[in-house]
Amino acid sequence: MVGQVATAAPPAAPPVVQRPRRVRRNYTPYLLLLPGLAWLIVFFVVPMLSLGSQSLQTGSVESGYSQTWHFQTYVDALSQFWPHFLRSIAFAGTATVFTLLLAYPLAYFMAQKAGKWKNILLVLVIAPFFTSFLIRTLAWQTILTDNGPVVALARSTHVTNVLQWLQLTSNDSLMNSRFAVICGLTYNFLPFMILPLYANLERLDHSLIEAAGDLYATPIQTFWKVTWPLSLPGVVGGTLLTFIPAAGDFINSRLLGNTSTVMIGQVIDSEFLQVQDYAVAAALSFVLMAVIVVIVALYVRRAGTEELV
Amino acid sequence: MTEKTSGDLKLKGVTKRYDTFTAVDDLDLVIPRGSFFALLGPSGCGKTTTLRMVAGLDQPTIGQIWIGEQDITDTRAYQRNVNTVFQSYALFPHLSILENVTFGLRRRKVADYEKQAMEALELVQLGHIAKKKPGQLSGGMQQRVALARAIVNRPDVLLLDEPLGALDLKLRRQMQIELKQIQSEVGLTFVHVTHDQEEAMTMADTIAVMNAGRLEQVADPATLYECPTSTFVANFLGQSNLLKATVRARTGTVAELDVHGVKLRLPMDRLKATTTELWLGVRPEKLRLVGPSKDGDGNRLTGVVVDASFTGLATNYLVKLPWGQELMVVQQNDGTRSAARGTQVTLGWAPEHGFALNASQDAHAGAQDQADDSEAI
């Protein structure tokens, strides 16, 4: 390309005084964008369109589907499965709050106090990823099993009664209950909360904490006036990374729950693979996506306008 | 915070030890109320550690810290009526300038916090940017905000940790003057930590020179410069020529010294060292090129000019003495004398411009630290 431009320049032009300014477009960024863009088109845009079209078709697997723009499917799906939507959001929201409560002190300790133990702790946080999601969830069946030590301890300390009163369990066991599902969700998504919080808190300038103390703020005031507002980007990142996949999760509710803890992900899964009602399954997928987008947008907007920027 | 603790800041036998390293070693210091006090020393001399202990950010291993009649050693930073201007300013990035300045007042539930904060911002001439965030300000402005945020609380002691270190030379000079003015305006005790000897001398009433965790000398700037009591101070504050001398006679008001066979004199009141062997010090600007005349009782040394560099204001000479030692001479450009390289010259100085130091000390102590620091600037 360089050669072409050079030969195209008029040879008669005085070479020193006036050099025509060549506007060279730099196409490299666009070229670098191509693989990702292609990936998104093939594996996101096309499936989305296909899913959208599927949700508006009528027919059956045996007789074949035809595009009928049947919006009634959405109404039917929602009227039948709205409790599962609410339950999913409630479970995912509760699990997100618990992960935040567990992750924040841990991330703070790792980032600000751990010193040479920092890297070991990071590895320990990531270590569960070396085993499969399914195995980790199944492990909770063993942990919460009726004849295990956890249940024995919970019974002897009357925690089971409290959980029952909170309607998180329906009897004096822990397995196959709302409690078990929320435990599984909390456990499985904990690293997604810890890592963004850690990345944020590690950058926290310790002299700001000292400055707050110097300006008469007690440690608790320092936390709420300085540390917490400065860590909000990490909190927002962590809660999103936890809430979004937790809301669509179908493993925890299946392996740790019962028939009254079915989450929307589980419904979509069975509509696709067992009931094989593709239209309803596709419609539910779309509604789930829309619900999450709305919740996230409201949340980010609220968190964003207050302290961030 | 209910009782007013105003008074002198006293450090009594304060020591700070880390695993194997003693940062501050048995420090005794009284900083009078309302004074502008500088802690001066090279990097790692323990001055910042001292400051952090006064602020309550570090705990002394041994020793006590008092403000007036109150022992504050065991109180936490937020309980002390002491404020710090941090080296990095440490402004809260998520709060506006006004919110930064009101932070301390609001924690103490001061009623008219906004009015007081605006007054403090006016004092540092930044009233117009109260609504901005720290990230939108230049380094010099952030420095003033940090100062306003601290002085608005009217602390018993205001600590400044190398507050001008991040500013460029011109701004630093300007801020030195402003800080000094603000201090005399508000009348608070300022404790200023710096490694810049010129900054300390320009601003402080009293300077404590620290080295390796210990105090070298505490005095006003002029005394420190004219009568250093250790080779470290002599070399760290400005430059010094140190000559190995032996006391021949201590008669009346003047002592007679022998420097490599040359007879030199020093007033007795400047001869604090009691040993016979000592370092005779004289500042380069006190030495002058003189004619070989025998005028009066001035000290005389002869040597050969090995280097001469003209700086405009003065000419800096390096004069080699017969025994090989080289003396620095700063000859003011007052048109009187000059000498070319290689010429034989006579150096003269008034005996009262000399000072004597104990000969057991390293003649180069402090010289290297100063060279390092001036390069870093």
Protein architecture, described:
The complex is a heterodimer of chains A (309) and B (377). By secondary structure, chain A is mainly α. Chain A has helices spanning 2-8, 28-55, 72-113, 118-126, 133-143, 149-156, 159-165, 178-202, 206-214, 219-247, 251-256, 264-273, 278-306; strands at 57-60, 64-67. Chain A has a single domain (74-306), classed as MetI-like (MetI-like fold), CATH 1.10.3720. Helices cover 71% and strands 3% of the residues of chain A. In chain A, strand 1 (57-60) and strand 2 (64-67) form a beta hairpin. In chain A, helix 9 (206-214) crosses helix 10. The longest helix of chain A has 42 residues, at 72-113. Residues 1-11 and 305-309 of chain A have low confidence and may be disordered. The interface between A and B is medium-sized, with 19 and 23 residues.
Mass-distribution shape of chain A: flat
Instruction: Profile the largest sheet of chain A.
Output: 2 strands, antiparallel
Q: Mean of residue pLDDT of chain A?
A: 88
CATH topology of the largest domain in chain B: Rossmann fold
